[in-house]
């Protein structure tokens, strides 16, 4: 299976368990790999037949800001289910990182892989 990917999508959103975190914006970084048959788009050079990574990037940021949660685990699951449903993506790997969460670490986060069948169970 071919893959369309987005790496290092960086944005500010409200996320966190502690009250002080609910009152500020924090940086999150997303790496996303999405299974897709790119041959159909390549055949006639058609954007409509592939995954538009600009539109998907915008959708991820809008979704995160419209759906604040406490845990990055929760946000990762919800973003994955949202993208699979909205764009009919058969499979994706999503890595969600919170680079300022631990003082002595470059970043912390979660990485998940989901498919359409798993997404149906979450929604």
Which descriptors would you attach to this protein?
123 residues, alpha+beta, GTP Cyclohydrolase I, domain 2, 4-stranded antiparallel β-sheet
Please write the string of helix (H) and strand (E) elements: EHEHHHEEH
Distance from N terminus to C terminus (CA atoms, Å) equals 25 Å
Strand tally: 4
Largest sheet: 4 strands, antiparallel
Quaternary state of the chains: single chain
The count of domains is 1
Query: What CATH architecture label applies?
Result: 2-Layer Sandwich
- So what's the overall shape? elongated
The computed structural class is: alpha+beta
Helix content: 25-40%
Looking at CATH, which topology would you report? GTP Cyclohydrolase I, domain 2
Give the low-pLDDT segments: none
Tell me the Rg in angstroms: 15 Å
The CATH first-level class comes to Alpha Beta
Write the layout of secondary structure elements.
Elements (H helix, E strand, L loop, with lengths): L2 E11 L5 H4 L3 E10 L3 H6 L8 H14 L5 H16 L3 E7 L11 E7 H7 L1
Helix pairs in contact: 3-4, 4-5
Q: Short summary of the structure?
A:
It contains 5 helices and 4 strands. With about 120 residues, the chain is an alpha+beta fold.
